[in-house]
């Protein structure tokens, strides 16, 4: 009998606290890795390819990889639990970072895109970890438990972009191009996160939740974790459908504007350190106030929080869109609000998805929701580069704001969010 099965139901609260603390640690380490790569991805892609129009492909392939890796990772978690699935995703992400280092050093664009695609598995881990925090959470505390894991990403994600400077020194020691140093920190962060999860995420929260719910984890799990089944359940469950729409649209708006901001600043000859500062403040907005967002979700429900998020996203797009090339206070404020609006839609939407179906169907539905979110964001990131090349950063921000308005309209039309 495994540790997962030997656990008494009376120990659930203690296990939940330990699970959240472990996930907070892995999110911190993983956040360093993800943010380090994001900070330099568009610039490296433009340099290696020699075309600004292709600059968005580094982030696009990363987001696409994060979406596609949701399929095998969700299936793996359905069979083996959160610990194995999350650890495997970080290992693949570390491999992707290593390929990105090699691509930056050799100037090989196709290798960079392969590397950033594999790198995307790390974002799968970071994304799925928030659901792991809800496996054993009481329904009335689901938003807060999820939000603390989201919040933990703040530490690593704020540090990550600011590792670009130290990364130059590391790259110099290793004989690499200056921006390759950021990928070195990515590989290290992902590796440490995988080790922490393997050592500390025991007993597994998802397997334990299934046992406590009366799901026999000794029997073959069949299609548990199957993303195709999850997509069908999302379509058939109004709460899951709306929650998926909320987190998807918020994520697409954020990715489209965020990924082009470093290039917008570079056109105004902003220093790389200032670009890193703006992205750090953006990520602080994404994660820093997540516990407040979770508290609001538990107290007032997800719908008002998502509406607040759409207002913040529209305001953010307006501030960013009217900013001039380079560094400006308006752009900095806009990127912070962009992150805060994302936090509202992500926490409230994810909490809704997490509670929309019984525990035996969670891995499938959560995987399906993240697949939709990731594929949509990948498309948004790809189009962002084209839109910016054709009509500029300001019009990109206008289109992103319109998407947020559509989400607000859908949210006000939803009749019920009950399961």
Automatic annotation (TrEMBL):
Residue ranges occupied by any Major facilitator superfamily (MFS) profile domain in the UniProt entry: 236-419
Main location: membrane
Molecular function terms, GO-annotated: transmembrane transporter activity
UniProt-annotated location(s): Cell membrane
InterPro entries per UniProt: MFS, MFS_dom, MFS_trans_sf
Keywords tagged on the record: Membrane, Transmembrane, Transmembrane helix
Membrane topology: Multi-pass membrane protein
Record field: transmembrane: 20-45, 57-76, 88-113, 180-201, 239-260, 272-293, 305-323, 335-357, 369-387, 393-417
Assigned GO CC terms: plasma membrane
UniProt cross-references to SUPFAM superfamilies, sorted A to Z: MFS general substrate transporter
Pfam families with a match to the protein in the record: MFS_1
Name listed for the protein in its UniProt record: Tetracycline resistance protein
């Amino acid at each position: 009998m495994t540790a997962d099965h030997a656990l008494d139901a009376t120990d659930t609260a203690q296990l939940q606290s330990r699970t959240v603390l472990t996930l907070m640690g892995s999110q911190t380490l993983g956040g360093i890795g993800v943010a380090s790569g994001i900070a330099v991805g568009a610039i490296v892609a433009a340099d290696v390819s020699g075309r600004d129009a292709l600059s968005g492909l580094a982030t696009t392939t990363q987001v696409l990889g994060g979406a596609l890796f949701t399929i095998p990772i969700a299936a793996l978690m359905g069979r083996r639990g959160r610990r194995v699935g999350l650890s495997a995703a970080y290992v693949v992400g570390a491999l992707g970072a290593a390929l990105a280092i090699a691509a930056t050093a050799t100037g090989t664009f196709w290798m960079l895109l392969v590397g950033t695609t594999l790198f995307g598995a790390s974002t799968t881990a970071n994304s799925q970890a928030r659901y792991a925090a809800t496996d054993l959470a009481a329904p009335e505390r689901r938003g807060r438990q999820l939000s603390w894991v989201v919040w933990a990403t703040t530490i690593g994600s704020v540090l990550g972009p600011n590792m670009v400077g130290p990364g130059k020194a590391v790259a110099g020691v290793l004989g690499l191009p200056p921006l390759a140093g950021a990928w070195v920190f990515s590989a290290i962060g992902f590796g440490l996160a995988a080790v922490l999860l393997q050592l500390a995420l025991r007993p597994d929260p998802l397997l334990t939740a299934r046992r406590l719910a009366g799901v026999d984890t000794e029997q073959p799990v069949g299609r548990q974790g199957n993303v195709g089944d999850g997509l069908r359940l999302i379509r058939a469950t109004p709460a899951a459908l709306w929650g998926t729409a909320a987190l998807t649209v918020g994520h697409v708006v954020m990715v489209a504007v965020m990924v082009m901001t470093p290039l917008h600043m570079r056109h105004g000859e902003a220093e790389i350190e200032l670009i890193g500062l703006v992205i750090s403040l953006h990520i602080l907005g994404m994660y820093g106030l997540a516990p407040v967002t979770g508290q609001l979700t538990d107290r007032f429900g997800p719908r008002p929080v998502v509406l607040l998020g759409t207002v913040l996203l529209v305001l953010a797009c307006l501030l960013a869109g009217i900013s001039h090339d380079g560094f400006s206070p308006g752009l900095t404020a806009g990127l912070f609000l962009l992150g805060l609006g994302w936090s509202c839609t992500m926490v409230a939407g994810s909490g809704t998805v997490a509670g929309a179906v019984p525990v035996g169907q969670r891995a499938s539905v959560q995987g399906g929701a993240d697949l939709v979110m990731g594929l949509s964001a990948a498309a948004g990131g790809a189009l962002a580069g084209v839109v910016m090349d054709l009509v500029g950063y300001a019009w990109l921000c206008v289109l992103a704001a319109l998407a947020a308005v559509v989400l607000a309209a859908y949210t006000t039309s939803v009749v019920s969010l009950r399961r």
